[in-house]
Amino acid sequence: MHYNGYAHIHTIGCQMNVYDSEKLGTVLHALGYQLTRHPEQADIIVCNTCAIRHKAEEKAFSFLGRFAKEKRKNPRLITVMAGCVAQQEGKNAFQRLPHLDLVLGTQAFSRFSTHIAALKSGQRQIVDTAPSDVIFETLPDDTAFAENPVSKFVTIMQGCDNFCTYCVVPYVRGRERSRSWQSIVAEIEILAEKGIREVTLLGQNVNSYGAKENSLSFAGLLEKVAGVDGIHRIRFATSHPKDLSHDLIRAMADLDKVCDHLHLPVQSGSNRILKKMNRGYTAELYLSRIDALRSAIPDIGLSTDIIVGFPSETSEEFEQTMALVKQVGFDSIFAFAYSDRSSAPAAKFSDPVDDTEKMARLNRLLTFQDTMTQKKNEQMTGRVVQVLVEGVSLKQHDGFVKTTPHTRQMTGRSEANKIVHFPSDTLAAGDLVEIKILNAYPHSLWGTASGTVMP
Ligand code: SAH
Ligand code: SF4
Ligand code: F3S
């Protein structure tokens, strides 16, 4: 193939962006570019951006800003802002980044190669934030397997129709649309042939997969994916509590390959705040779904997202969030200080919580969860968990060095998504193994292989 130079892709934001960046990589590869981890070596630099919070947006501007000087030295260097900030900013991006060559919105990825050709023939400052009727799909090529040879994200739907009042996603990603199950399964079959053993199916609200298209339900899709030979494990994110159905809980319980883990964002424990967020459920409904999940899948690992300091959140309402978090006992949480997004309705709500108070609430929540995570990890000692081996661990545990100094230390994840380290000279990435947990650490577990191995 004609060699065109080096391309560097920098990804900020959610798992969907990781997936999208791989697709952009596939396009660049097809155009003859070789991917590089080193931006200073690159002839084309792409930043795939996230607009979810102010900080994420700033990261995009600061990353791309670094190449203004480079560009003066090397006018042939192409710089691209892709994804959610690109969609949000359009041509305004040039005000802060006059050296930028292409603003590629979230639905413009199918036109990426055309724009690259135009840039190569001398055009500058191209903006494409136009909508698209088709969902951009490319089959994974070898460039997609560099990061993790065992586990991959697969986006199954785009956009969101929920319009939570704090959230920018419906404005930057557009309306919800699902890919066909046939194309999803075909993609996963290729991944399995390449050695991938775990897939995480992605959508903003996977429970409504196929609803608009009136096709297979999400539970039905899980069954299809479970039928792909070579795939040992299936995960998915994100589930919206209002749409978590009994069918899905059943499918999770019945399908062995679906991991016993669920990420179920609650956002707040206060019904008044949940209503202002337009979440469509109450704290009581959320707790009843947790009960249903735990009675169907007793060992289920649970994680959640929480926003603290939503406009007008009182300290009592924050205490309700703390109380809910304590009551559920999550394995892990992702907590964020509310960040104003000008396109989202909550930006116009009165009564903002001041930043110092927001940070104080966030710190209390995170400190509590650290203790809970440690406690949950300690509860695992003595138990046997199924682990998908990811490879040789880079970090050596002290206890391990003393007891088994000549054996390799491997790493993998349990079904509940906990990192597990263990000694082995025979196991390899992609093996499924049973590990007896001997020690718990704040961010990982340690144990020894104890049983059945599926190579
Ligand atoms: N679709 C998913 C979440 C997508 S965004 C869902 O509905 O749960 C990931 C997380 O970012 C959200 O769950 C929320 O906790 C957080 N988030 C979104 N907008 C935010 C904002 N304006 N400020 C702070 N956190 C926000
Ligand atoms: Fe944003 Fe709500 Fe959609 Fe999640 S469900 S992406 S939080 S609007
Ligand atoms: Fe960010 Fe866009 Fe994902 S705003 S969280 S990259 S959908």
TrEMBL record:
CDD domains cross-referenced by the UniProt entry: Radical_SAM (cd01335)
GO terms for MF: 4 iron, 4 sulfur cluster binding; metal ion binding; tRNA-2-methylthio-N(6)-dimethylallyladenosine(37) synthase activity
InterPro entries on file: Elp3/MiaA/NifB-like_rSAM, Methylthiotransferase, Methylthiotransferase_CS, Methylthiotransferase_N, Methylthiotransferase_N_sf, MiaB_methiolase, rSAM, rSAM_horseshoe
Primary site of residence: cytoplasm
The keyword tRNA processing is annotated on this UniProt entry: yes
Residues the record lists as binding [4Fe-4S] cluster 1: C14, C50, C84
Start and end residues of each TRAM domain: 378-451
EC number: 2.8.4.3
Cofactor list: [4Fe-4S] cluster
Keywords: 4Fe-4S, Cytoplasm, Iron, Iron-sulfur, Metal-binding, S-adenosyl-L-methionine, Transferase, tRNA processing
Co-factor binding details: Binds 2 [4Fe-4S] clusters. One cluster is coordinated with 3 cysteines and an exchangeable S-adenosyl-L-methionine.
Its job: Catalyzes the methylthiolation of N6-(dimethylallyl)adenosine (i(6)A), leading to the formation of 2-methylthio-N6-(dimethylallyl)adenosine (ms(2)i(6)A) at position 37 in tRNAs that read codons beginning with uridine.
Subunit structure: Monomer.
NCBIfam families reported in the protein's UniProt record: miaB-methiolase, MiaB/RimO family radical SAM methylthiotransferase
Protein name: tRNA-2-methylthio-N(6)-dimethylallyladenosine synthase
Organism whose genome encodes this protein: Desulfotignum phosphitoxidans DSM 13687
Gene giving rise to this polypeptide: miaB
